[in-house]
Amino acid sequence: MEKIKLEILGLSPSQSQTGSFALVLSEEGGSRRLPIIIGMFEAQAIAIEMEHIIPNRPMTHDLFKSFARAFDFTVEEIVISDLREGIFFAKIVCTDGIRQKTVDARPSDAIAIGLRFQVPIYSTEQILNDAGITTNEVEQADETEELVEPSSTRPQKSQKEALKDYSLDELTIMLSQALSEEEYERAAKIRDEIDKRN
Predict the structure, then answer these.
(1) Where are the domains of the chain?
(2) What pLDDT sits at residue 1?
(3) Distance (Å, rounded) from C-alpha 182 to C-alpha 10?
(4) 141 vs 11: which has the higher pLDDT
(5) Pick the CATH number of 3-142 from 1.10.10.60, 3.40.50.720, 3.10.690.10, 3.40.630.30
(6) Residues contacting residue 161 through CB under 8 Å, at least 6 positions apart
(7) Could you tell me how far CA 141 lies from the centroid of its own chain?
(8) Cα–Cα dist 41/22, whole Å
């Protein structure tokens, strides 16, 4: 099975399923993109890792990483391995340095875990042929739905301006509060404003 490396292109709210997100993966060095519909929790887990936001308490995928470290194993790669009746399947390839084990997972969970271990994401030619869309098809879709960066936390203009009105000390307090309340989208916006000033 020839593996094709994928990169995360973006997250956008799903137009077809309320409360869901489209995770768009892009073929490295190619024109095909693979959209996968994922839940809000998984989208949040992926977005906060991509935004380098550290929650006050470990999320499920962070717990997996801590568990792996405690038992001296690591993740080598993520493979989106199958597509059956419109449902994607993935494998988390793990090793303890001696043995290699493969664990079945939903693609959203596998990718959230893969990001935490900073490992490559792969799929197959068959899956990209069956479910991938080409750049031309994406350009047509972009006319009706914009793909946003993983921070899909792009602030509205009024929110941006409102954050500019706060002092650095106030923003630091607001960031801490947003994290404690697990409002990661708001936390990312505040963090971006703090970063602009540093």
Answers:
(1) 3-142, 157-197
(2) 65
(3) 21
(4) 11
(5) 3.10.690.10
(6) none
(7) 21
(8) 13
